[in-house]
Amino acid sequence: MDVIIRKDVKSAVDLAARIMADALRKRPDMTLGLATGRTMEALYAELVKMHREEGLDFSLAKSFNLDEYVGLAPDNVNSYRYYMNHHLFDHVNIDKRNTHLPNGLAKCEAGECERYEQEMRLAGGIDLQLVGIGRTGHIGFNEPLSPLTSRTRSVALTQGTIEQNSPLFTYPDVMPRRAFTMGVGTVLDARSVLLLATGAEKADIIAKAIEGPVTSMISASALQMHQNCTVILDEEAAAKLQLRDFCDWTFANDPKWDAFR
Ligand code: GLP
Fold this sequence. Notes:
Layout: E1 2-6, H1 9-26, E2 31-34, H2 38-54, E3 62-65, E4 67-69, H3 80-87, E5 99-100, H4 109-122, E6 128-131, E7 153-156, H5 159-165, E8 178-181, H6 184-188, E9 192-197, H7 203-211, E10 229-234, H8 235-238, H9 244-253
Helix pairs in contact: 1-2
Bound molecules: 2-amino-2-deoxy-6-O-phosphono-alpha-D-glucopyranose.
2-amino-2-deoxy-6-O-phosphono-alpha-D-glucopyranose is lined by residues 35-39, 66-67, 132-134, 140-141, 161, 165.
């Protein structure tokens, strides 16, 4: 795991955007795994800017999102499909037919999850999976006790996640209590993973996920087992890491990061 700490939110977001843009330029037909949440809004704004100002080309790219709320229609303003259209897809030249999220209205939840996994397989798997981290340590909606081998499925959300996300809803009470999510195992299958976390409220859970034991209590800790995972943090989110000096040293000295310093 490479942990890169930037001085503030803007430089953390800029670096994450540059890493994604670099991957897309090298392989324009890549399959992106995408995430939602407040943290990603600035990242998508940066990618939109790169598309407008530098011609960053999404025309051949495919995407699969981590998750979607059970029961929300794609045109519901609180759905993740709406979020993705609003923050990214409507503003870049991606072909929306190549963008995928679980269907929140699917009649058969198990069937929808199997279909989603199959679509990912048919697309050749995820090249670069973007993830955030929830207060409970979730990636996607893999709440505590999610098996580390889990695949896409529908899950119940914890009270902590409901408290974290309900303020984003037009009416907090209407937030669904269940969601479809890629499993921890699905995320670990991606060829590379990029975790972006910013802000002081993430410091505790980030330290546990990165430096603590791998445990299904904190699904983000499973990323320690991934061979190509980069974590980008701002100073505030990194504040509780013990190995911070080593992280800085690695970023400063590993030739892999020459183009990004
Ligand atoms: C939601 C998403 C997660 C995301 C989390 C972080 O719960 N399902 O995939 O990691 O939000 O949210 P924020 O960036 O708002 O802290």
